[in-house]
Amino acid sequence: MSEIAHQDHIEKKAFLVNSSSLKDVRVFCREVFEKLHIQEDLKEELVLAIAEAAQNIVKHAFKNSASPTELMVVQISCENNKLQIAFYDRGTPVDPKKVKHREIDNVKPGGLGTFFIQEIMDAVEFKDGKKPWINHLVLTKQL
Amino acid sequence: MTYKVEELNNISIVHLNGEIDMDVADKARQTILPLIESGKSVQVNLSKVDYMDSSGISVLIEGKQLAEKKSTKFELIEVSKPVEKVLSMARKFL
Asked: What does pTM read for this prediction?
């Protein structure tokens, strides 16, 4: 836990649902975390977790075939030193019971993203998406 | 991401540069795996990689597994700090 009191802040941005947007997601996150004065090591961990979650939307919720205008929204908020990152998308509904990283002795490529998210964040929660959204994922981390 | 392949003493050294994510992982895969497939020893220089996500790690796992199958060498060299951090998280799987 950080001893720094991070100012309360909220910011959100929409991105096209495709793999080319992942770099833009990272740029957005780094800019917000700069404003929040989050230390470099933690900042890059958080950027990785957020980018992996965005990647899961592209890869799994839309199976790499979203329409060219389809959007996902990333919202970063900080309140009382608690960081919350919310994702909204209109892809295939996610069944939270099926979202888990693979077994540790199952060495094969892929499926590491969810493991990284769970390693980095304190909590990962799927909430009911409110219209027009279908999926609403919330990642939290106490700073 | 950009890359350069250097041949040195029968070893192919792949120098990767930039950020390796889902968008460019295939490019890295198509650069590295054919070299291993051809039976060459391969080193991947990661000194100029400033970001790598699970897609990039997957390429490295595929390289390691293909090298084992082909009985050739596959090594990561000059691993940058950001990549080392991600690798340390992924190491349980490697």
From this structure: 0.90
